[in-house]
Amino acid sequence: MKRRLFVASSLASLGLSGCGPIKDALTNGPFHSILTGTESLNRAVIDTHGMARLYPDSAVDRNFRVNGLDTPSDDTYTRLAREGFRDYRLIVAGLADRPQRLSLAELRAADSLAQTTRHDCVEGWSAIGKWGGLRLGSVLAMAQPKPSARFCVFRCFDRDASGQPYYESLDLHQAAHPQTLLALDLNDAPLDPDHGAPVRLRIPTQLGYKSAKWVSRIELVATLDGLYGGGGGYWEDQNYEWYAGI
């Protein structure tokens, strides 16, 4: 049974290139049931072992497209970037027995891997990149989630024009997928600010808006209720699907 349904290409075939039509298709159209149904399929049949296709390095898009919110320009992020993220610390906290505060050097010293996968945007385009980093599951295991923890929430440096912060979330089942990475590199080079430096989420089994850039903090929580709009993510609060499996 094939894991990938490639919903993004289907959206493109309908000419959905603007945010308004895309939102309508995700929340009201036939793809709403497809996206909802794939989560049940993943758990009931494939579990965490449905893998995104791996590509040869020759297929990499060397000019990997930049999209999403603007690169952060606040004083904190600008200073970190100017100093090569020397003082950056990834906080992993919340419902954890051993909260972590990890420098970029410590993240790079952990067991790393590289995978060349396709990024599928909800707007209908795709790009192939070689991502290097470490498994999210390994980082969460270091923090030792408490039994009450069910989700991990990713707090990011970026904000929209109104000041609303970007965030994303996964349940611990999705976070344990072996291809879900905390990416540090793209195409054999450290992430640059426009592509999410110093740390971004990379989830090749879900649509691109789940792969949050500029991650500053990961919080282990029992529920997503009461968190911003309650949808579990910046776009999800605007009625995009929380589970965006492809």
Please give a structural write-up.
With 246 residues, the chain is an alpha+beta fold. It has one domain: Sulfite Oxidase, Chain A, domain 2. It has 7 helices and 10 strands. The protein has helices spanning 7-13, 19-27, 30-46, 75-82, 104-109, 136-143, 172-175; strands spanning 89-94, 100-103, 113-120, 126-135, 151-159, 165-171, 181-186, 189-190, 200-202, 215-221. The strands form 2 sheets. It has a 5-stranded mixed β-sheet with strand order 2-1-10-5-6. Strands 3, 4, 7, 8 and 9 form a 5-stranded antiparallel β-sheet that branches. A hairpin with a 5-residue loop joins β5 (151-159) and β6. It is globular, with a radius of gyration of 17 Å. It starts with 6 loop residues before the first helix and ends in a 25-residue tail after the last strand.
- Report the major sheet: 5 strands, mixed
What is the average per-residue confidence, as pLDDT, rounded to a whole number?
85
CATH architecture: Alpha-Beta Complex
Residues in β-strands, percent: 25-35%
Order of helices and strands: HHHHEEHEEHEEHEEEE
Indicate the topology.
Layout: H1 7-13, H2 19-27, H3 30-46, H4 75-82, E1 89-94, E2 100-103, H5 104-109, E3 113-120, E4 126-135, H6 136-143, E5 151-159, E6 165-171, H7 172-175, E7 181-186, E8 189-190, E9 200-202, E10 215-221
Parallel strand pairs: 1-10
Antiparallel strand pairs: 1-2, 3-4, 4-7, 5-6, 5-10, 7-8, 7-9
